[in-house]
Amino acid sequence: MGIVATATVNTLEAPWSGEVQSGKHQLITDKPESFGGGDLGLAPYDLLCASLISCTMITLRMYAAHKQIQLGEFRVEADFCANREGAEWVERRLHFQTPLDAELEQKILSICEKTPVTKTLLRSVDIKTTLV
């Protein structure tokens, strides 16, 4: 397998802000005002959470379509957390409008642990940086 995703960020005039482009899509990234930014867009850890919950939603919908299960409307939320000891973790929550039976709840929790972005975050990833 080769490149799975690609993105570029170009600096903008405002401190800490940039324009992210991926394919034909674009968005602004920035830091919150409390960190000296202008809060013009998603901060890096917001993007990380967005990646995880987007992948979770897509994976669950694909599973439901494959198994012909009606999940109804649902919402996925995530918080990136850290403590003073240096531990970091993500808390992910799923909210379904349609009640699920216990067996389906367990299956959904199992699937969530197997989404591609979840698996990437749970293992170490090499990052190779070069100057060009």
TrEMBL record:
Organism superkingdom: Bacteria
Name of the protein in question: Osmotically inducible protein C
Organism the protein comes from: Acinetobacter amyesii
